[in-house]
Amino acid sequence: MTTKPKTLQFDTLSLHAGARPDAATGARATPIYQTSSFVFPDTDHAAALFNMERAGHVYSRLSNPTCAVLEERVAALEGGIGAIATASGQAALHLAIITLLSAGSHIVASRSLYGGSHNLLDYTLPRFGIDTTFVDARDLDGWRNAIRPTTRLLFGETLGNPGLDVLDIPRVAALAHENGLPLLVDSTFTTPWLMRPFEHGADLVFHSATKFLSGHGVVIGGVLVDSGAFDWNADSTREKFPTLTTPYAGFHDMVFAEESSTAAFLLRARREGVRDFGACMAPMTAFQILQGIETLPVRMARHVDNTRAIVAFLREHPLVGTIGYPELPDHPDHALAQRLLPRGCGAVFSFELRGTRDQGRRFIETLRIFSHLANVGDAKSLVIHPASTTHFRMSADDLKRAGISEGTIRLSIGLEDPSDLIEDLSRALYAAGKSR
Amino acid sequence: MNLVVGGDSVYAYTGSRPFDRAQPTVLFVHGAANDHGVFALQSRYFAWHGRNVLAVDLPAHGRSRGEARPSVEAIAQWLRDVIDTAEIGSVSVAGHSLGSLAALEFAARNPERVRSLALLGPAVPMTVSDELLAAAAHNDHVAYELINGWSFSAGGQLGGNELPGVWMTGNAMRLLERNRDGVLSIDLLACHRYDGGLAAAAAVQCPALAILAARDVMAPLRNAHALVGALADVKTVTLAETGHSMMAERPGAVLDALRPFL
């Protein structure tokens, strides 16, 4: 029997991947390379950098050493080949789409999406000739039937927002691959500590790094990661992805799939999408996200533990109806979650407050530790009413299909002492009950 | 570009430049279970600096069809067939790992066709461990894991890639995983069984360059010394703190070593 070689483990990669002590100064922390541009040693070197004959940095919109450390680190944690840090999670989603799709292309997406992603797909991209068909995340036939000859991408969230539908990545990925298509997954809610979508068949992953990857709620950022496994040049895919398999006049007729069998997508995304659309990450932001990732394993474990305690408390409360948390046996995706998310189902979930809209308002306004704001994945506990905020642009029918009602409350459980969180919730529920 | 060699389609990367046999040709030969992409930066540089570049995918590798060649000698013959098919008179040849052995044998057999020879990560013998051979023979993923673990220096395992945003070991793994079953085993056995290295080195008539990696576990430095000693006209560049995957770990240093030579 062959002994597997020892490779660096997740916790170690969280601290070290992509970074070495600074060669110039010995600085242990990754320096913030707060510079727009980089001096060329000579003209030949400069030309070689511009033409992808040499590796290195030219201009911080294209790449930056601090951002590159973050990119490598997230790629390492996801088990991918590389990544691109972007100005936001939305920018990462946009970058993935515009690298692969053009006017006339089509996306099949889960209906259970973050409101911002839904906006992009449903309202904005059609203006540029890219249409999306939304399907029930759990309906594999729905995914299959929505695929058209012009479909170029399947897209869903590891845990749908806000009902926590668990995307059956192995089955949806298999369907995508049967049709010569890649599967893009938003893994913001789970982070690679809870699930590594590439191991289940996803081809591209992106994060809003604003959330759990950072954990501190002080930056906006995104990361797009490529598994490197999708074969853009296979007989069944080549003609679907001309941006990767035909000469690109915008870069000396480079054929990205010829440059690299594995990294064609990332090459095009950086050489076109980041270059031309410009939604790059600032080095200070990358540094701050790196600080968060250093503690990702310990934070995620605590997030999950605290969430389990809160869910257990809420389940017993008479004012609380359905709780959308896949660890609960009555959640429709409980069995799937046990298989795909053995470490836990994250720290964001929704529940139905039994009562009127005014009682819901009273509940939120009585909370003292939970902060009422539009974010998740902070070290601090957060609360929001999706129907009136994050998902307010969705029609009543779309809201219903996404599992959101007027009484839906979304919590993001932080790292506080769980007894304090339970006390806060208990007081707010009591106040809501009294305002009946 | 694509050629047909021995009835099989062969892919050769030309650095996004038209094939031009009027220019001096540089032939790049990748190692076991790799493809032309491992030389992407270096080959592109030469393509845009007055060279006619052919970075080939060996048979059954990358975009090339056909069956993997079972010996270094067979790969050397295949390289000869490639330049004959492309109607190229003489070439400079740069090979990495298994590709370095093939380039060496090719240069020894065809002295009139080789102007210069660059050997990256060579070793004679290029012994492969029983553990790795067995895993490869069974198409066990552990074979790829062993190679990846041994191909990067300790620093390289942590990343810090010169190529922004690319996680070296992840990228190397995915490239290995693209191989058909059996290809890695054939390549490793070709390395392991090749015993003509010193004789080939003695027969080489052109200038040679050996680029060695100080932290090479796959092809240890000590196994390169006898080879280097057998070459009549050779320069050696040793890259400090670098593993076998030197084109990924130190792309700039590899290019700087090759630039004045090819």
Written description of the protein model:
The complex is a heterodimer of chains A (436) and B (262). Chain A is an alpha/beta fold and 436 residues long. Chain A is built from 17 helices and 12 strands. In chain A, α3 packs parallel to α12 (283-293) and α15 (357-366) packs antiparallel against α17. The longest helix of chain A is centred in the last third of the chain and has 20 residues, at 296-315. Chain A is globular. The model of chain A has no long low-confidence stretch (mean pLDDT 95). By secondary structure, chain B is an alpha/beta fold. Chain B has helices spanning 40-47, 72-85, 98-109, 130-137, 141-151, 154-157, 168-177, 183-193, 197-203, 222-230, 246-249, 251-258, and strands at 2-5, 8-13, 25-29, 52-56, 91-96, 114-120, 208-213, 234-239. Chain B has an 8-stranded mixed β-sheet with strand order 1-2-4-3-5-6-7-8, sandwiched between helices. In chain B, β1 (2-5) and β2 form a beta hairpin. In chain B, α2 crosses α3 (98-109), α4 (130-137) packs antiparallel against α8 and α9 (197-203) runs parallel beside α10. The longest helix of chain B has 14 residues, at 72-85. The two termini of chain B are 21 Å apart. At the A-B interface, α3 and β1 of A face α1, α4, α5, α7 and α12 of B.
Rg of chain B, alpha carbons: 17 Å
Summing up helix and strand content along with how strands pair, one would put the structural category of chain A as alpha/beta
Helix count of chain A? 17
Q: Characterize the biggest β-sheet of chain A.
A: 7 strands, mixed
Order of helices and strands of chain A: HHHEHEHEHEHEHEEHHHHHEHEHEEHEH
SSE pattern of chain B, N- to C-terminal:
EEEHEHEHEHHHHHHEHEHH
Shape by Cα distribution of chain B: globular
Name the strands of the widest sheet of chain B in spatial order. Answer: 1-2-4-3-5-6-7-8
- Helix-residue proportion of chain A: 25-40%
